[in-house]
Specification:
The protein is an all-alpha fold. Helix content is about 85%, strand content about 0%.
Length: about 120
């Protein structure tokens, strides 16, 4: 081995250890209900390994639990871009989109009710 090969191998091992450490922090934070720390841990992983599907899915879950659905969708889109065959990412995205559609429909219904109430009051 050349000195550069040894240095490169050492750096790769160091990165793998760092990723494993932050994954553990993220997973444990989820279990404790500390979603913000979990999010930060998974974000740290994606800075070192932009192709880490599990970290992107972890970020999506954290964003969702922190009531940031559009950030969750962006993270899921990144995971799907990396691995289009990952059925879990696709299923989570589908559930999130359905939830957003239901929430938007409920909001639209409330707006329509208020408009209807106003129209009825004018008639009285």
């Amino acid at each position: 081995y050349s000195i550069f090969t040894v240095i490169n191998m050492t750096q790769q091992e160091s990165i793998k250890e760092e990723i494993a450490y932050w994954k553990k922090v993220g997973d444990n934070s989820f279990k404790e209900g500390n979603y913000l720390v979990a999010l930060e841990a998974y974000e740290t992983i994606t800075h070192s390994d932009t192709q880490n599907v599990e970290a992107w899915k972890g970020m999506a879950t954290a964003f969702s639990l922190l009531d940031k659905p559009y950030d969750a969708l962006q993270s899921l889109d990144r995971a799907i871009e990396i691995d289009p065959a990952d059925s879990e990412s696709l299923e989570i995205k589908d559930l999130l989109l359905k939830k957003l559609m239901e929430e938007n429909q409920e909001l639209l219904n409330r707006v329509k009710e208020k408009e209807s109430d106003k129209s009825n009051q004018k008639l009285i």
